[in-house]
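Researcher: Let's try something more involved. This one mixes different molecule types, so please make sure each is placed in the same coordinate frame as the others.
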Amino acid sequence: MSSRSAETWEQTPPLPEGHYVSGRVYNDEEIFSDEREHIFKKIWHFVCHESEVAEIFDFRTTERADVPLIVTRGEDGRIRTFINVCSHRGARVVMEPGGNARTHTCFYHHWTYDTQGSCVSMPRPEGYDGTGVCKENMGLREVKTEVKWGFVFVNLDDESPLLDEYLDGALDIFDQVLPKAELEVFHYHRAEIDANWKAYQETIVDLYHEFMHVILRDTQMPAASMDDREMRTYANGHVTIAGLKADYDKYEGWTDRNDASCFPGLDPDDARFAPLFPAQTFITRGTVMRVDTVQPITAHKCLIESRGLGLKGESEEERMMRIDHHNEYWGPFGRNVTEDAFAAEGCEFSFGKGAALRGIIARDEGGKGQCDSGLRGFWTEWSRRMGRPFSHPTND
Amino acid sequence: MPASNDAVRELIYRSCRCLDLQDFDGYIALCAPAFRYRITLYSPELRKEMIWLNHDRDGLTALLAMVPRHLVRLGTLQRNATVYTIDRNEADSRADVMSAFSVFNIDNEGRPSVFAVGHYHDTVDLSDDQPFLLSRNARLASRDLGIGSHIPI
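Model: All components are placed in one shared frame. Result:
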């Protein structure tokens, strides 16, 4: 055992291609720009849960691939998504993160749009006589929207495959839960962190990093056999992880969840993960669900959005229990997510300026235990979409 | 003799100082047995109230005791508080106290950044000359807390 010289530090590791990731993927500006075009403008994005636009004319605003979006429920009950940009001079139309409005009027010249994206009025239209500009052809740009089990997904690419084809069955890991449970979002937060988006998403797929979290060392790792775990990868880079258990009372100050009201189809100690490519994650822990998305801001900064979900119509007491269970692990004061963000920022410190040259994803436990097969599945899909091998993305 | 307003102010400031210094035993000692701690805020996205932390005194004690085992944000948090109002209810020997707070993160290189901004809504037991916190609602005005924190605000 010894430290390494520059030569041995920089040489290609004695591993098969696909078992290490070049550090360039975290700091190269061209790669970052390509990711927006080849990945984020092409894939299905989870944008909100239908409970966030529960009533007619409810809306939410968000952004994906740097494109501002408004998601709204029309008078016909259908949820539609539009680019939140006025057809006239390109100003942002809706400013609020959420609300209820029959129409939306651009602040700039008062062009007004309804919840089906039609431009329903423009002041003094006669000024456009003879130009072809009229409210009939000046609607908002609609974005493909599908709702699956209450989760609203959008795709900026009009030529994309259908959502179910994209998911490739990855959300079926929840098919005992989601079709039977009407859910409601009770927690939402967004957080900008100083890390490349992939560094955060990797913490979800990387089970070997359980050692970093005291709660996972105490409650999860000893609770079931490593051989009971099932990590599966899917055609489009999605991953599912099942067979995880947790003894929550093994963490000082916590109680077990055995008497708690679970989600349908789940045991109180059950944990299931579905990290969807590229950067959205669905997680259940017996009594509560979390859905995260990660969006690139720059090569060195990303935005995490996190939601907690409970059962719609549950009692105040049950909701409070679910909120507490959510907050034990998750949220800005949780014992788990804060540490994942810490890890992502810690990797940014070294990959961001090139001090770290590569990451090793070579653990092979046959999809059990703390196998890196999920990480390899993520990176294989990244390479396919980017047209670059992740081990040597810039031919270096 | 009921606690004075000066003693109430000192209680609020001392609670901040204890958390700044991670003197968790000192913080808990300022709390009455029936103490309830919450971090709350309004979500304009959901158009709902949210609770981001909710503990009784025992729960908060256990949570704070576990902090040293965790991987916590680098540097220190420093709370700047100003007591705005003290509304005394002598009949109940209680006071509702509202204070503004700003929490700064000083990283390991000494760089400051704003971590959180909001108001403490406290209920204080005045029945003795030494006041105690009966409840604290740390009401956040800011909502993006970066990587978050294991330590309450």
